[in-house]
Amino acid sequence: MLHLVSGQALFSSCSPKVCVVGSGPGGFYTAQHLIKARPDVELDIYERLPVPFGLVRFGVAPDHPEVKNVINTFTQTAKHSRCNFYGNVNVGRDVTINELKEAYHAVVLSYGAEGNRTMGVPGEDLAGVYAAKDFVGWYNGLPNCRELNPDLSCETAVILGQGNVALDVARILLAPISMLKSTDITQPALEALAQSQVRRVLIVGRRGPLQIACTIKEIREMVNLPGTKPEMLPADFEGISEVLKDVPRPRKRLTELMLKTALETPGEKELERRKSASRSWGFRFFRSPVEVLAEPRTNKTSAIRLAVNRLEGSGADAQAVLTGEVEDVTCGLVISSIGYRSLLIDPGLPFDSRKAIIPNSMGRIQHTPGVYCSGWVKTGPTGVIATTMNNSFDTARSMMEDMDSGALDVSAVKSGSQSITALLRGRGVKPVTFADWEKIDSVETKKGEAEGKPREKLLSVEEMLQVAQT
Amino acid sequence: MSAFLFVPSLCRAALPLTLCCCVVVFCTSHHRSDNKVTVNFINRDGDRITVKGSPGESLLDVVINEDLDFDGFGACEGTLACSTCHLIFDEEMYKKLGPVTDEEMDMLDLAYGLTDTSRLGCQICLSKSLEGMVARVPESVADIRQTKDAEVVSFYKH
Fold first, then answer.
1. Quick one: which pathway (chain A) (predicted)?
2. Residue B144 and residue A250: Cβ atoms within 8 Å?
3. Nearest neighbour of A248 by CB, restricted to B2, B142, B154
4. Smallest Cα distance from A321 to chain B, Å
């Protein structure tokens, strides 16, 4: 559109310019929705790593490749003419939120949850204790986690938490190497797991079977995991089947599967299978971590002390209450899978440190016009990709409402990526474009082909940049 | 997602790395124009959209091939790794659709607004006997694996 202002011609771009911080499902689904809904929106996605896709790449288990199919739709979005990807840009360090606000009509924060909830118990820093997020990052090739070198030389591993991440960790610890070696699990992790002496994994929850947070697909995968047998405590399931008839189908089927696994006498074939199984796994209920114990005069984990709980109330609202009893479980590996946690990347933003989210109303960040959020940093770190998809669509809708109502002023001229890339250049930061990522993608895929894997991930930022930018 | 080009694919369920005997659904397409099956979708605004599909195609294939604009539909591309192709049928049509595998049921159980006549569209293969079927796209494709609040709501309601 051409403006004539006091004799001077000014070209103003009418297109609203939006930037998204974070290129996981939160960022990409928001971008996708905005590009589709408004034919004039121009969108830039900033990502700290040289590679896109966030937890789809670094969180989804290697043996769940179908879940990663969403990468196809994200790729289409990234290659859209009105979308640009800028990897290797650390928002908060290389460029500030305020600088982004200057350059864009709207900013969307979708940087997820890269921190951990800690157990907060003595011994948490002993050798042999890991956060599930870091363990998962290790086998999925997250650059920050490549030095984790988890000690897999013990017989028993205890996982605190019973969500799907805990089940993923248990499954990767016990799966036959023949299953893992054709996935995109990293080579170092594969080699470490091939040498692993872990034979028994206990998945521990504070409450009871009716409160378990994982879903049935993941339980079924454990029940059917070749070379393993279940090891449950029938006493944990007392009184459960009696309440099942009034429970909605999803919870009922999941609980029935657990009951069957824990209580039913298996048929001949299953008995045979269990007899020849060299590895075992089980749920343990009504237990909270109290302390991780070390071998005398060492830094090595030798056991975990668990408090025994009882339940007050029922259903989803049931609370775990301490009974005063404790129990020690011998183990050499403790993995706490009690939740990820978002961090604050810019002190100028509001932050609810109790819930570890950015306070917002339908994606509109409180007290911060023009700045929105989507994904886990908006709602907290639970839910699968489809949950995040919905939450991102909601944020996009809020932004569009604001554009239509004028609450978000898109009439001003904004410089968008032009000024930001110039700023970054001045600071010695070289963004990785989507085409650059495709070079990394191609190298990883080729390396994988040679090993019968879908890809062999590059494990360091240096290697990624070398491939991307030469 | 109608702004983007999808390559129509053979619909397939992920082969589970398990020992359990599941029926794996393979849909193959027969592209003969005289052999089409009429399908009616009711979208989230309540509008009826009538299209034709070929016998053997899955309902997800039809949505993709006909460029139907259902937000977020079919995120995992028909591999039984999500519940976003959730569709609701009337009692009579539901009975015609045949048995549901454990694998489908496991993912269907996570669908928002689950009913007794719900199915996943990627697992329903068209045949002439389903001519004129009506499939409703339910509100919001959020999976049940979300916040505690949703857990409380979904735990106590059908």
1. Steroid metabolism; cholesterol metabolism
2. yes
3. B154
4. 19
Contact status of B50 with chain A (Cβ, < 8 Å): no
Query: How buried is residue A48: exposed, middle or buried, by Cβ count under 10 Å (0-12/13-18/19+)?
Result: buried
pLDDT tens across the length of chain A (470 residues): 444 444 443 444 568 999 999 999 999 999 999 999 999 999 999 999 999 999 999 999 999 999 999 999 999 999 999 999 999 999 999 999 999 999 999 999 999 999 999 999 999 999 999 999 999 999 999 999 999 999 999 999 999 999 999 999 999 999 999 999 999 999 999 999 999 999 999 999 999 999 999 999 999 999 999 999 999 999 999 999 999 998 999 999 999 999 999 999 999 999 999 999 999 999 999 999 999 999 999 999 999 999 999 999 988 899 999 999 999 999 999 999 999 999 999 998 999 999 999 999 999 999 999 999 999 999 999 988 888 999 999 999 999 999 999 999 999 999 999 999 999 999 999 999 999 999 999 999 999 999 999 999 999 999 999 999 98
Three-class SS state of A305: strand
Number of residues in chain A? 470
